């Protein structure tokens, strides 16, 4: 037995003892055919019959594979394309319901969320938060020297966290345990309405039902020099922190990255065509966040008419040309970040060839998460409804149940809390006052500043407020919005309250712990009840 074969056997035994190994499935005719197609550049050894160990010289990684032959003609009950939050959830649910499931992704499990979106961005937000806390330690009598960001170490931490989150999910193992299969063989593309082909191996997969969960991709505007800008996922490939950055787009991602780059010491200019930042948030949240950004040294430019072009200067800077108030303006920065939205990633899958209908760049679905082709369903960012993980998860459950059991389960637009890890956090759920007015609802609203909250004073985190919006007759919560320390967590509790139909009376009479951020909710409810006194507001009391 050679050195590598011995190693192969020990990898096999270790992996087998944990009952977790990679399963590489292929319609190969011979093992040699399989090896030449999949393991170019690798030393490959059979540890046991039916198993193989691969040593990749380029990455120095050793992996154990179980070799399985899939009869080429036999199809799947359900094929799920895309293994992000929606695809993974859809595949697991379909498998739970007894379907023979195939899950395809061109990269790996986790999708945008775990690999390049929520998880890595949140790690950067934690880093930013630590920097802010260390800088304010003096307020509490702790002497520290000015903290220094070690960007390459931060990026390593990002990858550690991503790996830990991926390992925890075990989506792949659970699909395999259900008798299903997982394929990482490049992009899937329709070659007919029930057959997908995988780009790397040209393998064709047949299915009775298909669930498309291919997510989206960052929008790049059609302007000269767009290639000189970066999109959020490319932040993680930067060799060093830019000293100055222009962020175009102040939606949820733009303001989150703005906070991070500001804390990392970059001079940030935040631009938007809207008159306010985070235009979809409560108006007061937008105003407080803008004030806070400006106090932290961010230059905020709203109401711009157009971004015209990006140029590279002789010394490698980016020159950004835009229009505002009819004037041509120019700024020079080290980097330009494009946060301009997230259209569906449909170009690789070949929707047009099989007649799948799209609308404004997204896949069109009905309330059963079903496309115009009745055997094809979709969930997550690909149809552009919620664009958040919690929405994707629910849509995936609906799509999977309808694919397996027949299209009968409706997707209802339930409460969807949203927000971001800015400084301070901001969040909201339910209606804004603007939306309640547009719907001509009879509502009452009030807010309390964090400056009035003992806990915020104790923590030295007095920026922000909480606002409640309630039905004037019944006292039921219609919306809640907050900006301030722990705002995102606070709004989750209010989302549960809203789902349960809780009234101001119940909130006012619940004994909430002191000193906490959540206790502000009880105080606010009591004030609203007092403001809306009888006779018209009996309904506010429980
Ligand atoms: C920077 C950033 C931060 C974010 N932060 C948050 C947050 O804090 N909270 C939150 O709720 N949401 C956040 N989001 C949004 C969240 O990431 C998405 O809503 C979520 O990932 C959508 O899940 P999905 O399954 O629809 O698509 P995705 O997660 O995008 O997964 C799609 C998968 O499909 C695969 N795929 C695509 N085309 C093909 C093909 N043809 N063949 C095979 N595979 C294919 C891709 O490789 C990918 O793995 C953030 C997004 C970004 C960009």
Write out key terms for the chains shown.
binds flavin-adenine dinucleotide; 16 helices; FAD/NAD(P)-binding domain; 542 residues; 25 strands; seven-stranded mixed sheet; alpha/beta; five-stranded antiparallel sheet; 24% strand
Give the CATH class of the largest domain. Alpha Beta
What is the assigned CATH homologous superfamily of the largest domain? FAD/NAD(P)-binding domain
Calculate the terminal CA-CA distance, rounded to whole Å.
Answer: 78 Å
Helix content: 25-40%
Number of helices: 16
* Number of separate strands: 25
| CATH T-level topology of the largest domain | FAD/NAD(P)-binding domain
Total number of domains? 4
Going by helix content, strand content and strand pairing, the class is alpha/beta
CATH architecture of the largest domain: 3-Layer(bba) Sandwich
| Rg result | 26 Å
Shape: globular
Which small-molecule ligands are present, each listed once? flavin-adenine dinucleotide
The main pleated sheet reads as: 7 strands, mixed
What portion of the residues fall into strands of 2 or more residues?
15-25%
Low-confidence stretches: 16-44, 68-73, 534-542
Mean pLDDT: 89
Detailed description of the structure:
This protein is of the alpha/beta class. It has 4 domains: 3-66, no CATH class; 70-217 and 342-413, FAD/NAD(P)-binding domain, CATH 3.50.50; 226-338, FAD/NAD(P)-binding domain (3-Layer(bba) Sandwich), CATH 3.50.50.60; 424-540, FAD/NAD-linked reductase, C-terminal dimerisation domain (Enolase-like, domain 1, 2-Layer Sandwich). 32% of the residues lie in helices and 24% in strands. It contains 16 helices and 25 strands. The strands form 6 sheets. Strands 5, 6, 7, 8, 9, 10 and 20 form a 7-stranded mixed β-sheet that branches. A 5-stranded antiparallel β-sheet has the order 21-22-25-24-23, with helices on both faces. It has a 4-stranded mixed β-sheet with strand order 1-4-3-2, with helices on one face. It is globular and about 65 Å long. The model is unreliable at 16-44, 68-73 and 534-542 (pLDDT under 50). Residues 81-87, 104-107, 111-113, 117-118, 121, 187-188, 213-216, 232, 253, 345, 348-349, 380-382, 387-390, 392 line the site of flavin-adenine dinucleotide.
């Amino acid at each position: 037995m050679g050195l590598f074969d011995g190693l192969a056997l020990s990898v096999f035994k270790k992996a087998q003892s944990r009952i977790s190994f990679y399963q590489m499935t292929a319609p190969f005719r011979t093992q040699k055919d399989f090896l030449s197609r999949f393991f170019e550049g690798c030393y490959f050894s059979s540890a046991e019959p039916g198993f193989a160990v691969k040593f990749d010289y380029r990455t120095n990684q050793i992996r154990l594979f179980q070799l399985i032959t899939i009869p080429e003609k036999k199809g799947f009950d359900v094929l799920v394309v895309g293994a992000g939050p929606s695809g993974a959830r859809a595949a697991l649910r379909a498998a739970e319901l007894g379907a023979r499931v195939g899950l395809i992704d061109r990269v790996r499990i986790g999708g945008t969320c775990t690999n390049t979106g929520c998880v890595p961005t949140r790690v950067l937000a934690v880093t930013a938060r630590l920097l802010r806390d260390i800088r304010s330690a003096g307020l509490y009598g702790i002497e520290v020297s000015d903290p220094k960001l070690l960007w390459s170490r931060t990026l390593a931490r990002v990858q550690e966290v991503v790996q830990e989150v991926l390992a925890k999910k075990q989506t792949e193992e659970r699909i395999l345990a259900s008798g299903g299969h997982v394929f990482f063989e490049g992009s899937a593309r329709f070659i007919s309405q029930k057959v997908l082909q995988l780009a790397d191996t040209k393998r064709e997969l047949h299915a009775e039902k298909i669930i498309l969960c291919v997510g989206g991709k960052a929008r790049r505007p059609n302007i000269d020099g767009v290639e000189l800008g970066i999109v959020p996922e490319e932040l993680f490939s930067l060799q060093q922190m830019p000293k100055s950055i222009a962020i175009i787009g102040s939606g949820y991602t733009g303001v989150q990255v703005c906070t991070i780059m500001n804390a990392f010491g970059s001079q940030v200019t935040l631009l938007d065509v809207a008159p306010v930042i985070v235009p979809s948030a409560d108006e007061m949240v937008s105003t407080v966040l803008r004030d806070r950004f400006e106090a932290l040294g961010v230059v905020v430019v709203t109401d711009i008419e157009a971004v015209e072009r990006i140029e590279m200067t002789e010394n490698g800077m980016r020159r950004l040309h835009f229009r505002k108030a009819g004037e041509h303006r120019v700024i020079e920065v080290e980097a330009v970040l494009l946060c301009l939205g997230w259209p569906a990633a449909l170009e690789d899958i070949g929707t047009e060839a099989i007649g799948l209908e799209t609308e404004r760049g997204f896949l069109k679905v009905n309330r059963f998460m079903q496309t115009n082709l009745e055997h094809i369903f979709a969930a997550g960012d690909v149809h552009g409804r919620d664009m958040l993980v919690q929405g994707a998860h629910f849509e995936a459950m609906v799509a999977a149940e309808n694919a397996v059991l027949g299209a009968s389960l409706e997707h209802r637009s339930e409460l969807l809390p949203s927000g971001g890890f800015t400084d301070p956090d901001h969040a909201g759920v339910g209606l804004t006052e603007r939306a309640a007015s547009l719907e001509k609802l009879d509502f009452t609203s009030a807010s309390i500043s964090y400056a009035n909250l003992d806990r915020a004073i104790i923590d030295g985190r007095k920026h922000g407020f909480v606002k409640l919006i309630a039905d004037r007759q019944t006292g039921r919560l219609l919306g809640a919005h907050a900006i301030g320390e722990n705002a995102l967590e606070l709004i989750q509790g209010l989302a549960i309250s809203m789902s349960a139909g809780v009234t101001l009376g119940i909130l006012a009479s619940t004994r909430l712990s002191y000193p906490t951020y959540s206790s502000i909710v009880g105080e606010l409810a009591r004030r609203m009840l007092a403001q809306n006194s009888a006779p018209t507001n009996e309904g506010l009391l429980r």
